[in-house]
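[User]
Um, tokens okay?
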Amino acid sequence: MSAAPWAAHFGLARTPFGKSIPARDLFARQAHAEAIARISFCVVESALGVVTGDVGAGKTVALRAAVAGLDPTRHQVIYIANPAFGTRGYLKSSLSTPHLTRTSAA
């Protein structure tokens, strides 16, 4: 992938605001570290968590950083871009994800 035309002007090898930036290279703030800790807590406790915030607050950055720290042999991440379609849509989207199967409730 080539950098944006303006990137060379500033001496950059790549665009600094893309989604392809490795999690280790992301700018870490205190709020960012707290979000990662809360997401990690949800993972450890097998709890459901919700990440909310204003546009540009760093929700996606925190999620990407937390996911980067997961063992891919133990965790499968499901990204649902628009949960505004209700519970039924959420479940349908989750269950239509490859490699997931329904299990009967005990």
Notes: The mean pLDDT is 78. Residues 1 and 14 are 8 Å apart (CA to CA).
